[in-house]
Amino acid sequence: MNKIKKNDMVVILTGKDRTRSGKVIKMVGTDRVLIEGINMLKKNVKPNPQARVQGGIIEREASIHISNVALLNPVSKKADKVGFKLIESKAPGEKTKKVRYFKSNNELVDM
Q1: Rounded Cα–Cα distance for residues 110 and 97 (Å)
Q2: Backbone conformation region of residue 104, classed left if phi is above 0, alpha if psi is from -120 to 50, else beta
Q3: Residue 10: closest CA among 76, 101, 60, 78
């Protein structure tokens, strides 16, 4: 289980977009993430009439290593460390569940 997942709000810790925040669009492999509107790069694209792609310069997000981002704590509005807890279910027959929590205030990330 990763500490950062798709649709999480994160803060960039290093690089040109430091202190900006955004939503995780996609996990690229196990150690890289795409964040909406962050780390934008320009790419030249050749036209392809068969696929109806118009040529030109497009802007898109580049991936960022997971060590350069931190989860945004909605209570404190700051970057926060994330840990894991095992929560036991009270219903009979159900297993314990592994959930993420913020280390600063012990609040659960996964509700």
Answers
A1: 11
A2: alpha
A3: 78
Largest CA distance in the chain: 60
Q: What is the pLDDT along the chain (111 residues), one digit of tens a residue?
A: 789 999 999 999 999 999 999 999 999 999 999 999 999 999 999 999 999 999 999 999 999 999 999 999 999 999 999 999 998 877 777 888 899 999 999 999 976
Closest CA to 64 of 91, 103, 36, 92: 36
pTM for the predicted model, two decimal places: 0.82
Three-state SS at 66: helix
101 CB-near residues (< 8 Å, 6+ apart): 82, 83, 84, 85, 107, 108, 109
